[in-house]
């Protein structure tokens, strides 16, 4: 069994797959300790590990050491690259492109076999454009709904409500009749507006000859405005398997 890890700044997304790529289990945890405990509870044995990390070198090394000590496995780690699997990194300094973004767009191009727009809708929102020849044309980064919401809560004294109220507020996109509805629906509409501008730009590049991929926790908020999009929550893992093959 192979352990795959996407180590973000706040959370670790993990899954365990067979050598044939069949997903056995997975989840999201907030710390190295939580990861070890989840694996002990749900996994009988591990043969190998591959990971992508945007954490510091010290944090990543600590996690790798814990996995080695607990499960006696070595971790193969994704690294920056100017080119991978037919995709050419579009950043002027390729090593500065976030590794999770890089793997997601590599995974998308592998699945699309052609031009694609990759929209990752999480704490931050990113978009990336890859043409039919595998050239990454760059992308955009902006605050996601969690960041927009938190900024309003932090800097506006009268905006106070909990996550359950926020969830109920999104049952409609009618003009809000409470502060929670106004904030949540406003943030959702801003997110949808960003997505629509990315679609317009992609059409300027490629007409209708491109595929849209949605990934990240807030992908459901925009799925309705991109009905032909492919929702791919494990897109980073698709790219990770390409970057770190295990034979």
TrEMBL record:
<dbReference type="InterPro" id="IPR043129">
    <property type="entry name" value="ATPase_NBD"/>
</dbReference>
<feature type="active site" description="Proton acceptor">
    <location>
        <position position="100"/>
    </location>
</feature>
<comment type="pathway">
    <text>Cofactor biosynthesis; coenzyme A biosynthesis; CoA from (R)-pantothenate: step 1/5.</text>
</comment>
<dbReference type="GO" id="GO:0004594">
    <property type="term" value="F:pantothenate kinase activity"/>
</dbReference>
<protein>
    <recommendedName>
        <fullName>Type III pantothenate kinase</fullName>
        <ecNumber>2.7.1.33</ecNumber>
    </recommendedName>
</protein>
<feature type="binding site">
    <location>
        <begin position="98"/>
        <end position="101"/>
    </location>
    <ligand>
        <name>substrate</name>
    </ligand>
</feature>
<comment type="similarity">
    <text>Belongs to the type III pantothenate kinase family.</text>
</comment>
<keyword id="KW-0479">Metal-binding</keyword>
<keyword id="KW-0418">Kinase</keyword>
<feature type="binding site">
    <location>
        <position position="179"/>
    </location>
    <ligand>
        <name>substrate</name>
    </ligand>
</feature>
<comment type="function">
    <text>Catalyzes the phosphorylation of pantothenate (Pan), the first step in CoA biosynthesis.</text>
</comment>
<keyword id="KW-0067">ATP-binding</keyword>
<feature type="binding site">
    <location>
        <begin position="6"/>
        <end position="13"/>
    </location>
    <ligand>
        <name>ATP</name>
    </ligand>
</feature>
<keyword id="KW-0547">Nucleotide-binding</keyword>
<dbReference type="InterPro" id="IPR004619">
    <property type="entry name" value="Type_III_PanK"/>
</dbReference>
<keyword id="KW-0963">Cytoplasm</keyword>
<keyword id="KW-0630">Potassium</keyword>
<dbReference type="Pfam" id="PF03309">
    <property type="entry name" value="Pan_kinase"/>
</dbReference>
<keyword id="KW-0808">Transferase</keyword>
<comment type="subunit">
    <text>Homodimer.</text>
</comment>
<feature type="binding site">
    <location>
        <position position="120"/>
    </location>
    <ligand>
        <name>K(+)</name>
    </ligand>
</feature>
<feature type="binding site">
    <location>
        <position position="91"/>
    </location>
    <ligand>
        <name>substrate</name>
    </ligand>
</feature>
<feature type="binding site">
    <location>
        <position position="123"/>
    </location>
    <ligand>
        <name>ATP</name>
    </ligand>
</feature>
<keyword id="KW-0173">Coenzyme A biosynthesis</keyword>
């Amino acid at each position: 069994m192979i352990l795959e890890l996407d180590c973000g700044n706040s959370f670790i997304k993990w899954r365990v797959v067979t050598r044939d790529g069949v997903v056995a289990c997975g989840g999201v945890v907030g710390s190295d300790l939580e990861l070890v405990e989840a694996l002990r509870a749900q996994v009988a044995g591990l043969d190998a590990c591959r990971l992508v990390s945007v954490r510091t070198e010290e944090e990543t090394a600590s996690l790798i050491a814990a996995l080695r000590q607990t499960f006696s496995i070595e971790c193969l780690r994704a690294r920056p690259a100017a080119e991978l699997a037919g995709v050419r990194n579009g950043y002027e300094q390729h090593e500065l492109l976030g590794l999770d973004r890089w793997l997601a767009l590599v995974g998308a191009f592998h699945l699309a076999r052609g031009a694609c727009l990759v929209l990752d809708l999480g704490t931050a929102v990113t978009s990336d454009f890859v043409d039919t020849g595998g050239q990454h044309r760059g992308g955009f980064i902006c605050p996601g709904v969690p960041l927009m919401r938190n900024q309003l809560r932090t800097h506006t004294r009268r905006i106070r409500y909990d996550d359950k109220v926020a969830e109920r507020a999104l049952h409609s996109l009618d003009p809000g009749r409470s502060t929670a509805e106004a904030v949540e629906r406003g943030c959702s509409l801003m997110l949808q507006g960003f997505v629509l501008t990315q679609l317009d730009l992609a059409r300027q590049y490629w007409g209708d000859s491109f595929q849209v991929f949605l990934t990240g926790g807030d992908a459901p908020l925009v799925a309705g405005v991109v009905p032909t999009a492919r929702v791919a929550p494990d897109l980073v893992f698709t790219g990770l398997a390409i970057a770190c093959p295990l034979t």
